[in-house]
Amino acid sequence: MALQRSGFSLSISKFFSFLPNPTSLLSLYTQSPSLVDDDNVYCAVSKFNRMLDMRPVPPIFAFGKILGSLLKMKHYSTVILLCKQMELNGIHPNIVTLSILINCFCHLHQMTCAFSVLTKILKLGYHPNVITVNTLIRGLCLEGELKKALNFHDKVLAQGFQFDEFTYGILTDGLCKIGETKAAIQLLRRIIEGQSIKPNVVMYTIILNRLLSDKLINKVYDLYSEMVSNNIRPNIYTYPILIGALCKEGKMKEAKNVLAVMLKACVKPNDIICSNLMDAYCVVNEIENAKRVLKAMTQMGVVPTVYHHTIMIKGLCKNKRVDEAMNLFKEMHKRNMVVTTVTYNSLIDGLCKNHQLDKAIELFSEMTEKGIQPNMYTHRIIIDGMCKGGRLKSAQTYFENLLIRGDCVNVYTFHAIIRGLCRKGLVDEALRMWSKMEVNACTPDVITFETIIRALFEKNEYDKAEKFLHQMMRRGLLKR
């Protein structure tokens, strides 16, 4: 059934109002240096202009072909300008060119214009197909207008329009992205009850991924079981989610069983599955198994990345195998891998915790010399390492320099130096640092309060400690 016109009252006359009025489309196009270099786009626009001058004018589908190719190349503004030029030359659009125009407006976040084109489609007596309507729903979802997208869906559905599985994939994805997982599951139930559209693996996978992100592991299992009972086979995107869920629960045996099922189904493991397994093995201190996964990756056709090596370095450091971590780090350099701040942080932290502060500082210097920017976590590691390594003065100087330079510091950076000062009984210095926290937009947390209060009690300064306790209660950090 065609969409009725009464639901849309947007003005078509303003539909090109935000665009310029080019005297020569080609000359306007060539003003953009990014487009000049693109021979394909230049040739397409040139051909389009030549077609405008032809007599007789080529059929509309020939223009649509060029517009479609430009759409695929993501030159949305160019398509819109060409459509305007076409209409100025008296060439009437058809359903294909108008649908392409809707797609372009949606990509450019011009939803008012997109719906104006829909109004024009209806006034011309065309029947929009499901691809066109899906494009509009996707556009609304990308703008975060889920309520409008669902209302539009309901209105169109009430008129007898038939949607497809892509429609519900778009809506499910949109709901999950704004954290409305419960609504996404309810939508899935509506589809199953309606029986006109069969839910597919994409819809389930989108929701499973969100449930995993929300750490709702039991719900991941339940929904996965439901999916399998509905004879929907998992795909390359579903397996990593389930394996990730099992790994987060420390259920390594079950995770390996799912991996075996996946391999039996001839689904090739990807880098996400490998990183999930490695990370989980490191968490439960099964380092040798993590190393086996890293080694097996190339045999499975998966290229180990910096991320995988960083997981391994972190796991080795956690298990006090810092020398092995350093060797792996050197191996990364030999392979010309671009080492990140996270990799350096993992190794510097490992060295500090294993009482190799000089090596940690040396590595930190190497990091900055190579132009790799330290982050707040790096600063916390260095300050904490210096404090625990008996170099409190160096830690204070380092921290003060951060404040002078205006570098980003957070509550954890402050806590590291405050804890170091309190350990040495320098409570007044710690309180001075405390006063600087709020000046630097850092709100003290429970741990920082407890550190200060404990230090004050040890100094027999009970009145001050009591004031901090009351302050904790006022801030809602301690129940009365």
UniProtKB/TrEMBL annotation:
Stated family: Belongs to the PPR family. P subfamily.
UniProt superkingdom: Eukaryota
Name of the protein in its database record: Pentatricopeptide repeat-containing protein
Biological source species: Sphenostylis stenocarpa
SUPFAM superfamilies the record matches: HCP-like
PPR repeat intervals: 94-128, 129-163, 164-199, 200-234, 235-269, 270-304, 305-339, 340-374, 410-444, 445-479
Pfam families assigned: PPR, PPR_1, PPR_2
Keywords of the record: Repeat
